[in-house]
Amino acid sequence: MRPLRSLLFVAIMTLGGTGKALAHASPKTEDPPAGTTVGTAPSVVSITFTESIEARFSGIIVENGEGKRVDDGDSRPDPNDASQLSVGLKQPLAAGVYTVIWHALSTDGHRTHGSYGFSVAR
Amino acid sequence: MPAALIARGIARGLHVAASLSVFGSALFYASVASIALRRSSPDTIRRIERLTSGLINLGLAGAALAAVGWLVLQSVYITGGDDLGDGIAVLGPVLYETNFGHLLVGRLGLLLLAVLIFGAGGSLRRAAMAAGVAGLAVALEADLGHGAAMGGAAGHVLLVSLVLHLLAAGAWLGGLAALLIVIDAVAPAEARKVASRFSALGAACVLILAATAAVQGWLLVGGFSGLFGTDYGRVAAAKLVLFVLLLGFAAANRFRFAPALTGTDAPDARRQLRRSILAETLTGLLVIVLASILLNLSPNMNMTH
Lengths: 122, 305
Fold this sequence. Notes:
The complex is a heterodimer of chains A (about 120) and B (about 300). Chain A has about 120 residues and is mainly beta. In chain A, about 10% of the residues lie in helices and about 40% in strands.
């Protein structure tokens, strides 16, 4: 059965079209890392995406546990890395749980968005 | 499947199809039609030149019109909403500050240059140059593909395979309307030679299309789960059916209608060949539109941690 399924897959992909399955920008690495607790409060939150992104139409928002924004509202691209975006924080973060909400437009024209959390230890 | 996604896919598909038509028509004129032009009367040659030039101009106009529609729909999509006013408000930044906008303007500029080089026809060298410039415009479409954004070794493989895929589609499907013009204009024996040569070109293109689509599929999808029970799978299956239909038309032209052109009922064979090429052209257009809709769809996606 397995060869038959493989043949069917090849047929669909060969004759059925060029795929675009995983072809959107999503976070590859985050700083601070997603789901972690850091001992030192960060001054910047940055994300490196799986693809190069359009900075004009991409952004990062950071909220504290009460849903209030703690970023400076100025998402910036890395001049040396078209796949990296970062945002400064208004002041050193207090201990607590934070949510990073991001949206990205990859240079192949696809829009994605998502969120993740990290914590700052007391 | 959202209506906006389908509309964006249709606009993109029409733009790509029109671009392929400019490339395919110029390439056909330079590489295939030439064998019939040598043995045709001056009146026939002038008719072919006039109609082919008109077809290439029409391709440019179609590409430009569809590009405007695609730009507006893509701008609305980029805003993250569905308000046309919001999309129109960011038309400038989308056009001048994104890869999408730069490529759109660049491709239309190259297509315009190709049309100017081709002129009114009459020069095989100019037609070959026009095909080269239009081919560059077609190839640039691949820079909006995943491979270009992804980078790395896999990204480069994807980029090259998509360039070859687009050029093969252009050489085959983009040349069909120009083939129709020549088949209609020249003597049956010449029409048969032209159809046979185009079939050989088409067969090579089918092999390239199959190989490059397989590369894209394996690298991007990597499994079955994204294909069944999803919009992506349904559109890919519809495209598969139409692609098989395309192969059927191509085979009928090659093995049935073209040989019959030099048989006892040439006028009837020419009518049948004309109808078959027309049906192949329309089916090819549908395949390109479905491919463009596929580019906006993704199985197995999980963007949120």
